[in-house]
What does this fold into?
Amino acid sequence: MGRADPIFYLAATRGASERIASPPEVKDSHYDVAIIGAGMSGLAAGIRLAHFGKKVCIFERHNAAGGLNGFYSFAGRKYDVGLHALTNYVSPGVKGTPLGKLLRQLRIDRDEFALCPQKQSRIAFRDCALKFTNEFSVLDAEVVGKFPAQAAGWRALVQLVRTYDDVALDAQPRSAREVVSRHLTDPLLTDMIFCPVMYYGSAQERDMDFGQFVIMFKALYLEGFARPLDGVRVILRVLLEKFRQAGGERRMQCGVAQIKEAQGRVAQLVLDNGEEITASQVISSVGFAETMNLCVPPQTQAAAANTGNLSFVETISVFRRQPAEWGWGDDTIIFFNDAERFEYVHAREQVDLRSGVICFPNNFDYAGRNLSEGIFRVTCLANYARWAQLPEEIYQADKQRWFPEVVRSAQRFLPVVAPEVLAEAQLATDMFTPRTIKKFTGHLNGAIYGSPRKIRDGRTHLSNLYLCGTDQGFLGIIGAMLSGISMANYHVLQGSTRG
It folds into this structure.
């Protein structure tokens, strides 16, 4: 915790057996499609395009793929970044779901992701808790049992969510709070339903677009959580290998420094090393504002008008004992709130301790196996500006100061364990801040979920430059990959995307 942030930095510290070599240096300077960023959406777009014979190259500034959903190694341990759980999980054989569509379009066998479902999760507020699992009937019974006066409205809201077209690219923004208020009148229930949905995908304060709400409601409540035993690196290995097999090229430690335009189109991409390349079409996964700032001339006004401002800190504690030994073995993820009302807002101080997310990676159903060590992760809202410009010594001291405060804020919602018991079992700690996110992803303000206004059709002011990923509007790991696929299909492949 007292060292320089390693979050998102992994390739240099991976074992040789896990390092995936980049293709050898090539001389090509023109591509059918150039993709900016090797996160989940960029990789998925690249795989889809390569399957259809497109000459495609992914340009990534860092030495590791994954973006906000990568992992890093330190002192012999591997830590996931971003991945609390993969959402949109459904059991084998369930048809017509985002997970099934993703696997089909990327030609991935379900077993390759090695997904293990959650045990159960909780929404825990001061005086009420709602349990939910990958079976929606559990949450349904909890809501109806604890809020009987809301049962009819709740069921009507669920039906609306089930039938709403959340993938329409021409959908107009609607206030989720306003739509939900037509069905739920109890402020506590409303706050409890919004808490996980917002923590797992909202770039807006206090509210979100109803289409975004529907995406996350389905992903969390109607479908569910899962995780590979070995974490996000399993998913990344599959994606990187599929891209390689399909003939795609990727250039690591080779970011895009400028997007030069002429006559309303991308004319050239200038790389960090000064090299210039051309592409018939360009897909950017690095964010709307970030992409606009790469343009020459820069679209600073557009970028400033749609820059996100919501960021997080996260603490990671590693123990020599399993969480279940302390009575912490039932819940996979806990969304907590200890304020009178749940406020998902830009933090005023460095960290807002009133609410957050607890994740126990140990508490998935690993079919008789488990992680060798216990892991306890806590996420809270944070203020980028209050972390960004600190001198290194003060920055590290503030991390030391906030770490136990964040942990204590979460322990309010867990069975009590004596501090000396936890201290004796603790093997390692780490913490990342908004400053870490900005440094290793380039996201302005360390904004986890990017711009508050999403660009659903992915179009920009340049006719051959498109967005995919968080700022296109499909959320979560599955959503990010579907965003890459959808933008590749819609803008590049068009009529040739069957199968």
